[in-house]
Design goal:
Layout: H1 3-7, H2 27-35, E1 40-41, H3 46-53, H4 58-61, E2 67-69, H5 74-93, E3 101-104, E4 121-124, E5 131-133, E6 139-143, H6 148-156, E7 160-162, H7 172-177, H8 185-188, E8 195-201, E9 207-211, H9 216-221, E10 231-241, E11 245-253, H10 257-268, E12 279-289, E13 294-303, H11 314-317, E14 323-324, E15 327-329, H12 331-339, E16 347-356, H13 359-375, E17 383-391, E18 413-422, H14 428-449, E19 452-453, H15 467-470, H16 473-486, H17 491-494
């Protein structure tokens, strides 16, 4: 998350020059190409290469699919799914292995295979990217292939905003279906709590809508249920009046860590009498840059009104800093600043846990971060970052009901995120093992301290984590029931890579 540290690594971004022979085509890829000749691409076609090389994380760029489908309309997407489902039925009815497909929105996940699949079919939705504000200024419709920057640019000029991603370069699809945290979450809840309706293509190719009045069970399931029910093609989100925000990074020496942890704890310790719904974050980032052997802190503050240094941030203002970038700016500019902190083309990993807002536990989290520095100090080009993010109970009770299981929380929580950036694939095992061990140590400490919480923010989870278990047994059963209704043969459980699955074996 740190602008300074990742900016220093922009020059490290690796190039993966794809030298592709023509891949062997399967029956299903031939059927797709014959039916949609202008929308299906194979290597070494330039469109194919551009798509593979445009993923954010290097691990995703290293995966080479069999073909890429770029639907130009919702009807073309429905045709694609109809063909894939027919092939799936043929293969599974004879006990065979289904052809795997992946769905891409922005392609910004650090998890390998989240939006790409080796020798499978990639459905690239980036052409379904229209952003259409409503005439009454109460909502906006945006295609799943859009990025948040596209949405914010369209709304900024109208004096409107929407609960959306904090990084302008992230695609709208994955973030929204995973719940979605926003600078407006203290005011209106998660991104998914503000989605009025979804247009979705189901496994059988049916195009339908999910809203409070139409398919209401599916509507709720899509609010945190990821890609388990179909392919969402567009969202209708609630908008609200908004002007410039006040935001930016505060940069500090690593020696200020204990002061920052305490300031974060005091801010997050929710007091209804002083709660300020315009105060977003803070995102407190503690980073170690291996090439410079340097520890620094970068904390991102956002106030969603054009007011400089509101009193709620006094605890951060008093900590001595090297410099800051805080200023009044548009929402587009603020989210562009966050995007500039995470350049594309590097090896990436996210892993997360959740704890109660307890000072002793937060200090142990920071101590675990420092142990990670020692364990990975020889990983070439490594930047190891701990990000603390408040998750206040009031946020989970705003907007429409979702499937994340947070509504019953009464204590302030902290989302603990570790991000790692590094250069060489030979270090992959060490990075994965170290980060997993660090999270296990934190969880064990929090269990003993009585400060653990089962919730895991889906969009920050590593591939071996299971966010749906953290939603609670009742919510997980609800999601499984919706899967049985809308995908009875289990296409999205067995054949769609990426996201997190619902633990349902075989057909539904």
């Amino acid at each position: 998350m740190s602008f300074l540290f990742h900016r220093m690594q922009t020059s490290q971004a690796q190039s993966n020059d794809l030298k592709l022979a023509r891949s062997e085509r399967s029956v299903v890829s031939e059927a797709l190409a014959e039916t949609l000749p202008d929308s299906v691409f194979f290597g070494p076609d330039s469109v194919f290469i551009e798509s593979v090389k445009s993923y954010w994380a290097m691990q995703e760029r290293e995966i080479v699919p069999q073909c890429i489908v770029r639907p130009r309309s919702v009807q073309e997407l429905a045709t694609t799914l109809t063909i894939l489902k027919r092939d799936y039925d043929t293969r599974t009815s004879s006990g065979g292995t289904p052809m795997v497909f992946a769905v891409r929105s922005g392609g910004h996940s650090p998890m390998p295979g989240s939006a790409n699949t080796h020798d499978g079919i990639v459905i690239d939705l980036r052409l379904l990217n229209k952003v259409i504000p409503s005439e009454d200024s109460l909502s906006v419709t945006f295609g799943t292939g859009a990025k948040w920057v596209d949405v914010y640019k369209a709304l900024d000029e109208r004096g409107l905003a929407v609960a959306g991603g904090r990084n302008s370069d992230v695609g709208v699809g994955g973030l929204t279906l995973g719940g979605g945290l926003s600078f407006f979450s203290p005011r209106v809840g998660f991104v998914c709590n503000n989605i009025l309706s979804y247009e979705i293509v189901l496994a059988n190719g049916t195009i339908t809508t999910a809203s409070e009045s139409t398919n209401p069970g599916l509507w709720r399931a899509l609010k945190g249920g990821s890609n388990n029910f179909g392919i969402v093609t567009s969202f209708v989100a609630r908008t609200f009046p908004s002007t410039d925000v006040w935001s930016g990074f505060l940069y500090m020496r690593g020696s200020k860590a204990d002061q920052m942890v305490r300031a974060f704890y005091e801010f997050t310790q929710h007091n209804p009498s002083t709660y300020d719904e315009y105060a977003a974050g803070p995102l407190a980032c503690f980073s170690y840059v291996q090439k410079l052997r340097l520890s620094l802190i970068a904390t991102y503050l956002v106030y969603t009104k054009p007011q400089s240094w509101p009193t709620c941030f006094d605890g951060f203002k008093s900590i001595g800093r090297l410099w800051s970038t805080v200023k009044q700016q548009s929402l587009t500019s603020a989210t562009n600043e966050v995007a500039s902190s995470s350049p594309a083309g590097l090896r990436q990993l996210f892993i997360t846990t959740t704890v109660k807002n307890d000072l002793v536990t937060l200090r142990e989290v920071h101590a675990a971060y420092k142990r990670g520095v020692l364990a990975m100090k020889f990983v070439k080009g490594m930047t190891w970052t701990l990000v603390l993010q408040p998750l206040l109970p009031v946020m989970a009770r705003k907007g429409q009901a979702d499937s994340q299981g947070l509504a019953g929380r009464t204590e302030p929580l902290v989302i603990v995120l570790f991000t790692v950036v590094w250069e060489r694939n030979t270090d992959d095992d060490l990075v994965h093992r170290t980060t997993r061990d660090i999270i296990d140590e934190i969880d064990e400490f929090a269990d003993v301290q009585g400060t653990s919480d089962p919730y895991r923010y889906l969009n920050d989870c590593a591939s071996w984590q299971n966010p749906f278990d953290g939603y609670g047994a009742e919510n997980k059963r609800f999601l499984q029931q919706m899967s049985k209704i809308y995908d009875p043969d289990g296409l999205f459980q067995r054949a769609c890579s990426g996201g997190f699955k619902l633990g349902m074996d075989g057909s539904n």
